[in-house]
Amino acid sequence: MRTPTTLFIMAATLMPAWSLTQKESELVLFMRQEEQLAHDVYAALFEKWGQSIFSNIARSESRHVDSVKGLIAKFNLDDTTPSEPGTFTIPSLQTLHDDLLEKGERSLIDALLVGVLIEETDIADLTAAIEASEDVSVISVFSNLRSGSENHLRSFNAKLAPLYTKLSEPSLEVTFDSNRDPVLSWGNVSEGAQTILIERRPVGGVWTEIHASPVDTLTHIDTECSVAATDYRLRIESNYESYASDPVRCLRPFSTYHAWASFAIGTASDIDGTEQGDPDRDQISNLVEYAMGSDPTRPESAPIVSASMVGGKLTMTGYWRAEMSALSMSLESSGDLMEWTVTSPLAQTVRGVGIGIESFQFSIANDHGNTRFARLSLNRAP
Prior knowledge:
Radius of gyration: 34 Å
CATH superfamily of the largest domain: Ferritin, core subunit, four-helix bundle
CATH topology of the largest domain: Ferritin
Number of strands: 15
Distance between the termini: 127 Å
Largest sheet: 5 strands, antiparallel
Strand content: 15-25%
Number of domains: 3
Order of helices and strands: HHHHHHEEEEEEEEHHEEEEEEE
């Protein structure tokens, strides 16, 4: 008769070997640290804000961690998760933990939004892991964890909803004062806005923040605006979102060339203040700089003109100062840059595109390839 010991050994040798694929093992170990990340962030946010939602969900995350530890023990995997809270051996999770904790300490709304992000990330990662696994026990544990994360997400959204005031897109108007400085004005901004930012860019350039206004202000005067064509926009921000107004394009108003030259150059009587003067030596006359909204004192501020071949026509587009009744524009074409011919354009459109600015477009036939170059000439109207 066999001894109980022999029977136990024989039974053990008949038990199936539990094992996971390399991919499944990696998923289990990753989820071990991701669930730990959720617990550690929530525990830290509870210490910061004292809100029970963080401590309650942190306790739930501890149970999630224990569930994954059960898989690790079952499949005899090597758990490398550090015992020190907030530390991880997976670099991407360490970076995520640090970034989320920094964001969550800014405000209670930010902290709740961190909870939303953690749970949404957890749900996405668990779903991907379930789809990539064939082991019944792994799928079962991860499915339960996903259900828990979905409950956590609902809790964070419910807590966040009463605190969340959606910002509305602001509107911006631009006028000019007696000094010809742009005056930006807007109505009352949305409740919940924390900051009003004014941004400016040269036409075709990059937006730059030029001023931050308190939320109870309604106007700002830009005393540092150049004479170039300029876009403005208003941006309002809260702790959790940002909206910008539609851009407003404008150009400083001047009734005459001489008024502009006195302002932009210093005095119209200087030799460089004459219509054909060129103080910045960019080979663009002051008259053209005045008409087309560029700065005569900065060579990098060139008129905004572009040329392209469209449908067999050479087309030139750009911007110039509105109400230019004293000036006329002509188009000249050339095939060799040597001989220029005044050309009657096939089409010319002028339309308002902003405050004090109009756009123009000239199109001329390519004459079977003979027209390769074009230039615009600005003249005093007869």
